[in-house]
Amino acid sequence: MASVNPFNLSDSEEEAERGPNETADTERSPSDGAPGPPGNPFSPPADAEPPALPLSGNRTSPSGEGICVSASAPTAMAGTAETRISVDGIAAQLLKDQYILTALEFHTELLEAGRELPRLRDYFSNPGNFERQSGTPPAKDQVLGPGGPLSECGSAGGDHRLLLNRAGSISTLDSLDFARYSDDGNRETDERVAVLEFELRKAKETIQALRANLTQAAESEIPSQERKNFKSSPDIQEPIRPLEKRALNFLVNEYLLKNEYKLSSITFSDENDDQDFELWDDVGLNIPKPPDLLQLYRNCGSSLTSPRERVDASVGVDLGDLSEIRFAQEPVKKPDLSQQVLVQELEYQLNLLSGEKQSLADQIKKLQRCLHELTAVWPFGSLLCYLAVRAIYELLMTLIANVMDSTVTTDSNFGFGSRKLSPAFQQALLSFCRMCSDSRLGAEVSRIADNEDSVMLMLGRCLPHIVPNVLLAKREELIPLILCTACLHPEPKERDQLLHILFNLIKRPDDEQRQMILTGCVAFARHVGPTRVEAELLPQCWEQINHKYPERRLLVAEACGALAPYLPKEIRSSLVLSMLQQMLTEDKADMVREAVVKSLGIIMGYIDDSDKYSQGFELMLLSLGDPSERVVNAVHQVFIPAFAAWTTELGTLHTALIPSLLARIEKLLKQGERGLDEHKLHIFLSALQSLTPPLFAVVLQNAPFTSRVKLHGDIPAIEVTRFPRPASPLQDMATIIGSREMLSALLLLYDHQLEHEGTTGWGSLLWVVNQLLPQLIEIVGRINVTSSTCVHEFSRFFWRFCRTFGKIFTNTKVKPQFQEILRLSEENVDASAGNGILTKATVPIYATGVLTCYNQEEDRKLLVGFLEDVMTALSLSHAPLDSLKASFVELGANPVYHELLLTVLWYGVVHTSALVRCTAARMFELLVKGVNETLVAQRVVPALITLSSDPEISVRISTIPAFGTIMETVTQKELLERVKMQLASFLEDPQYQDQHSLHMEIIRTFGRVGPNAEPRFRDDFVLPHLHKLALANNSQSVESKKIDISIHLFEAYSALSCCFISEEVMVNHFLPGLRCLHADMEQLSQEHEVILSSMIKECEIKVENRGISISIASSLVGEDAKTKFLSKMGQLTTSGAMLANVFQRKK
């Protein structure tokens, strides 16, 4: 007999070939020949576990070319040779005979062996092979017929698709990503939240369907014939069903617990140890919980509430339901922008994910308990049901793992991670994200829909606004539509296109439009998570980094900061930081660089890679050196406070950051011996000033008393003037510490510690006292005292420093160190040798930066005494007065100190030493410019007149510059006449005719104040007396005096030549004085003589042109203006440059 292939025959053909006696024989399973029920080769024994499905008990590896059919088959085949059958033939026969599970396992083993079979792949990847012909489930007798559940599918000529319920999973075998479930651990997870939600919804639908089927099967355990018997005989009560018994048990146990029958409840639970009384779902799947026993008793005569009207709180909650509830309960009021919206949204997301995770975990536990019951409930298809549930279970486990990973990732990226910033500082830092949610559209953008239903609701809200406005440059109305679609669209290419449209929606977006786009981007980031933000939003920013329109680049810069909380930390500290650094160095628009600096500050609030410290420091210096003032302001307002907060956490604020700035200042001073770069000094010093509040916060937080802080009880409010006004909320001490209550409590303990307990063991404060202050004072002594800019910068720094650290610290720690260096003791005040430190910038900075911090009476007395001592010491030691002048200039800029400075000067006016009186007279010159005329009339002029009658001629001469300044600045005629009379007495009194020093001082003063003085004073007083002095100098016999007077006259006439001088004064005084000076210069200086000749010639031309212009004007009277004017113009022989002077008006 020829070899027979048992797989070449269908079931019907095999039955036709069997004899009558063979039909009664037991069929053998294709797996191993074990006997099984007739007509159902897939049914295992009733008491057996779900078996595996091997093709044969004697088979080769799937990688072999075929399968050997051994002689263990029928005896008739014992003598035949082995025949090898192709793998594809086996697969075809299995599919033809509807051995679907065997074919599935065969296909799986082939895949594991790396030999994929196209026939099996195509079959199992086609969902149509597993669908029913109609949407209704098959009748029970169809599924449980004599031939088994698969007998209907195996008939010849019938439909070869398997009549099975299609699984709710979205994945077929070939659509599954096997690498996703592999254990190699090398593939990065790029799951998308939207896909996960979709899979979860599908898995839930499958579970719900399974619940319904299981419950229906449990309810139908009693045979239908028995039910008919019970219905026909009402006297016979139908026995309790298992489901009813479990429900009643649950209600009884609940009643016992509620009424304090705890021992009875424990006993009852022990007697029903197969039931979980803590979970209603253990009673039955998909069954609502009824009211308790008491409610059932009370309502036994009335109709009970329909299950549809009740809500089962213990059943898993659907994401869509939660989102609808959230939108329905969302208040209409305008949402808060910064911390409130962020915290509420994060708490909602975390609670949502936690609830979903717990719900899925509970469902998995119930599925595990149900697995052992499936065989008893469905004995006809235990293997099929087992495999289906196992597949769903594995899919759910994978999805839950992904959700948990997503939850952890979301939680770590939406917050500040491992950073320990105070909530107030976080809120203030995030307030620099330029978002807008205080309008209808802003609120719409900030709450992105997260399911299909809410998308439709959002469309209904937005479309009425879009239609009438989209053609009128109101394209921001499209932002909610674009974002929602980009969030929920499953195709990456489509999402990328939508986000590209979003960033290119408006050609040059204005401030409001950019805020809308940024608000939408933040809402998108909250919804999709860090992975999609990195993959989808960041490329859009990168594409626009070099856009030709600054508004688009500004959008990119602002987006980098707004998206920082939602990016992976590795991307924040690498790609985003590099993008912003590139824009800071290359962008030419000030507003773009300003936004870049603010975004860098926000990045510094989230970064936790300590290796990026040096890069952050360089970015700080780079941005501080920006030529734009608005960029520098942004550095002080946002970047430096955020960077300081990071260095505080790293512990490097006072160990690395501040010492680095001090080292750069010292290096700058060493290089500045040939000329100090004041701009760089300003950069470094302003950075130190912005770091003062964080430094004080470090001192407070590391103090010995931090453990004794108590926030309850009466905590006094902080004085408004306790701290300097901060440049931004991030520099507010209350924001840095965390709250005003905490700051107030710390300040109380801080002052008490300094005043009574000292600084022992207080490392951070000891560093400030022993290292920072001495280094700063040393730097102050090395700067140039004549540089008013440097003095002002350091003075402002010390003022803010002392105000921040408090009055007790200033009096006990700062002032003693300055006083030790200045050495203003009684024995040194009158020392003739002088004191070198008094001539340096230490004096004005101590006076204006430290002594003016507090304005109480004792502080003012201390300042007055210090200035008096310095004036006395410098005068008696004949030292330069630059340090005293710098102090007066800095203090005189503030009207609050005018009375105080006049008090100091009056001390000098009445001093016994002429040297001190001379110094006082010269200081009046500096003070007059800023003092109001009332004080000048009441305090300054009387003091100067007193000094002008001083016995010492040097004192009288010293008053001349101050009198000249009064003539330059004061407008009161009476006051000017008094000053004019005093100056005239100096010039006309015979006792001063030979006073060479007095004449030089008057000439120098006239040259300084003449151009700005009143024209009448200049024409009637200054120029005539200069003429007299020049004429007298012609007859000077002492050549040295003659040279001094000539040089001063030359400078005075050079300054006055720029003024408008009347023709009379020009002819009678100015030109004659120039000619006298020219005569002297011919003998003394050839260079000056040439310049004077040119000046004399120019003045003569001016006089000549004025005469011609006067004659032209007179001849035009009564004649045709145009004709006569042109004819007269032809008579002019002057050059074009001189022609303009013809029409020059008198000023």
UniProtKB/TrEMBL annotation:
Q: Does the entry feature the keyword Coiled coil, yes or no?
A: yes
Annotated transmembrane regions: none
Q: Name one GO cellular component term.
A: recycling endosome
One GO BP annotation is: intracellular cholesterol transport
Q: Which UniProt keywords apply?
A: Coiled coil
Q: Where is this region: Disordered?
A: 1-68, 124-152
For bias kind Basic and acidic residues, which ranges apply?
17-30
Question: Where is the sequence biased in composition, kind Pro residues?
Answer: 35-53
- Which lineage ranks, top first, belong to the organism behind this chain? Eukaryota, Metazoa, Chordata, Craniata, Vertebrata
Q: Which domain of life is it from?
A: Eukaryota
This protein is called what?
A: RAB11 binding and LisH domain, coiled-coil and HEAT repeat containing
Which InterPro entries does the record associate with it?
Answer: ARM-like (IPR011989), ARM-type_fold (IPR016024), HEAT_type_2 (IPR021133), LisH (IPR006594), RELCH (IPR040362)
Show the ranges annotated as biased composition (Polar residues).
Answer: 1-10, 126-136
Return the HEAT repeat spans: 940-978
Question: Which residues fall in a coiled-coil region?
Answer: 186-220, 343-377
